Amino acid sequence: MSMFHQSQLLDFWRGVVDPLGIGMPEAIAAEIASYTGENPEQVLLKMEKGTEDFKQLWTSRQVDVGDAADVERFYRDQFVEAYELANWHCGRTNGTPPLNYAFAALLARHDGLSRVLDFGSGIGTGSIGLASVGCEVHSADIADQLLDFVGHRMSKRGYQARLVRLSRGQKPVSGYYDLITCFDVLEHVPDQRAKLAELEGYLRYGGILVVNLMYDSTHADRPMHISSAGSPLKLVRQTGFKPDWRGFSFDRQLLVRTRTARLSNQIARFVDDKAAGMTCSL
Ligand SMILES: C[S@@+](CC[C@H](N)C(=O)[O-])C[C@H]1O[C@@H](n2cnc3c(N)ncnc32)[C@H](O)[C@@H]1O
């Protein structure tokens, strides 16, 4: 059972995307238009073609998916993804908008979590949502042009933008954050376990990571999904996180960094391996 009702999450998200009530697609298109100088109608059309355009860009670049640096270079200087993300955030891609950030923001308010790292912040709608509940948000991304837009959006909304430009070697602060959000990002990196270990180091002990680990991320329209998590629980057992069962589901995982999690995960893996061995020999 989720901690928050779906309708509560949707209301929250709608308020973030469309504070003036002009319609979510129109609101987000107007924000992009005011930044790029395009007209909003043009932006709405580009949003509609966003998934296809982003796929084509990926295909034309022939990215070497085994080379993390080459993958990161692909994201660094493009803005095409902004239109794809805008279309998704306003609910036009899947018929309903993503609600993970709404969940994280309501969780932050509920648990009194204030220092937040939005890792892979995209166009910053989630960063805005987290800032709107009073969090100090650090928005980190490899995509420099998207980060510029995040800075623009945050300031226009009256929030301080704290941008972490990963492509320029900037890093989030170690052991600092109460909460990290990492939504729809890990399938874009070659080594998910290594990235989880990196995120762990940015959290204080007791801090929470909210992430969506995809069992199988392969998708015909998204060739840039280059890795899959497999079993979320199995992956988590290779880290220093333990599940927070209030929000651990198949679609979204709530994980806590604790001092003892790494050891207890090792023990759990040992027990699992033993049990698997016994099953095989029966
Ligand atoms: C599908 S978007 C999701 C954006 C945002 N989290 C959201 O849910 O709207 C994936 C994001 O991950 C970023 N990204 C890809 N590889 C990354 C990496 N190695 N480190 C940090 N961000 C990365 C991309 O630039 C993009 O902004």
What's the SSE blueprint?
Blueprint: H1 6-17, H2 24-36, H3 40-48, H4 50-61, H5 68-76, H6 80-89, H7 100-111, E1 115-119, H8 125-132, E2 136-141, H9 144-156, E3 163-165, E4 177-182, H10 192-202, E5 203-211, H11 232-236, E6 241-243, E7 253-257, H12 261-281
Bound molecules: S-adenosylmethionine.
Give structural attributes.
Rossmann fold; alpha/beta; single chain; about 280 residues; globular; binds S-adenosylmethionine
What structural class is derived from the secondary structure elements?
Answer: alpha/beta
Query: What percentage of residues falls in helices of 4 or more residues?
Result: 40-55%
In spatial order, strands of the major sheet run 3-2-1-4-5-7-6
What's the CATH first level?
Alpha Beta
Describe the largest sheet: 7 strands, mixed
CATH architecture: 3-Layer(aba) Sandwich
Q: CATH H level: which superfamily? A: Vaccinia Virus protein VP39
Residue stretches low in confidence (pLDDT < 50, at least 5 long) are none
Bound molecules: S-adenosylmethionine
Quick summary:
With 282 residues, the protein is α/β, with parallel strands linked by helices. The chain has helices at 6-17, 24-36, 40-48, 50-61, 68-76, 80-89, 100-111, 125-132, 144-156, 192-202, 232-236, 261-281, and strands at 115-119, 136-141, 163-165, 177-182, 203-211, 241-243, 253-257. The chain has a single domain (6-266), classed as 3-Layer(aba) Sandwich (Rossmann fold).
Task: Write up this protein.
It is a single chain. By secondary structure, this protein is an alpha/beta fold. The protein has one domain (6-266): Vaccinia Virus protein VP39 (Rossmann fold), CATH 3.40.50.150. It is built from 12 helices and 7 strands. The protein has helices at 6-17, 24-36, 40-48, 50-61, 68-76, 80-89, 100-111, 125-132, 144-156, 192-202, 232-236, 261-281, and strands at 115-119, 136-141, 163-165, 177-182, 203-211, 241-243, 253-257. Strands 3-2-1-4-5-7-6 form a 7-stranded mixed sheet. α9 (144-156) links the parallel β2 (136-141) and β3 (163-165). α2 (24-36) runs antiparallel to α6 and α4 (50-61) packs antiparallel against α6. The longest helix is centred in the last third of the chain and has 21 residues, at 261-281. The chain is globular and about 65 Å long. The model has no long low-confidence stretch (mean pLDDT 95). The structure holds S-adenosylmethionine. The site of S-adenosylmethionine has 17 residues, from α5.
